[in-house]
Amino acid sequence: MNRTNRGDSPMKRALDEARKAGLRGEVPIGACLVLDGAIIAAAGNETRVSNDPTAHAEILVIRRACAELGQERLVGADLYVTLEPCPMCAAAISFARIARLYYGAQDPKGGAVESGPAYFQSAICHHAPDVYSGLAEAESAQMLRAFFAERRGQAITTG
Amino acid sequence: MNRTNRGDSPMKRALDEARKAGLRGEVPIGACLVLDGAIIAAAGNETRVSNDPTAHAEILVIRRACAELGQERLVGADLYVTLEPCPMCAAAISFARIARLYYGAQDPKGGAVESGPAYFQSAICHHAPDVYSGLAEAESAQMLRAFFAERRGQAITTG
């Protein structure tokens, strides 16, 4: 299997969702959930617009895919995310029994897959997906850098 | 401040929510969120009824309290939970800027506060609440033990 080709389209959708999130003032992170070759849900962060600190892109696509399918678990699903998931999202990915996780940039400050507690390798993790990182890494990271640089710029000019 | 007396009533509410969750076939865990002395939200697990693997009691009270108050953070809030939070809930507690976490029983198999990765002490955690554990510990643990013993019994009789 050519994993790169297989991942191209859902990762592009995740990047589109990240871009849209940034345009509405959210941290530009996007996710896309695929089951049996079909995109079931896609979202960018919505913590601000929803007043919900749990509304990370990954949580949203898991919740929406489960609602769409009427099931509590997403066995066999692929999740594409533009940034390394945080502990909240990593645990949700495990609870949902997602089979494969593809992500873009690493997040040494907040990630929990390769960074920090490396949740999927910990003794309290009872289901770990296969993990593929580095997809569209440069584009994902650039979008985040530009977003935070602009916010710092605004803070300086309005501070 | 007498922390035990202060915690009595919200923890009783969390235990009530845990009991109700168990009666509807959910893992019996309950939570209650208090701000400025008032209970803003209380819930038990709803993962089965909602087909939502993220619908842990803590996530639900955080989401509902934020919706109720129209804000993304719960600065100064107290969260009462019957069981040690998992990594998903621990990270959500941090993101919501909850000030104090009170919980009942420890969860060595799935908890992330004192057990496993001890998220609040990790380098990727940027806000940690004050933590008080052991409130109503025996009652919380007994409810979970009875629930899982009954499920094992059912599995044996129907298996």
UniProtKB/TrEMBL annotation, chains A, B:
Textual note on the cofactor: Binds 1 zinc ion per subunit.
InterPro entries found in the cross-reference section: APOBEC/CMP_deaminase_Zn-bd, CMP_dCMP_dom, Cytidine_deaminase-like, tRNA_aden_deaminase
Annotated EC: 3.5.4.33
KW Lipoprotein (keyword) present: no
A Pfam family this chain is assigned to: dCMP_cyt_deam_1
CMP/dCMP-type deaminase domain location: 5-114
Protein name: tRNA-specific adenosine deaminase
Species in which this protein is naturally found: Notoacmeibacter marinus
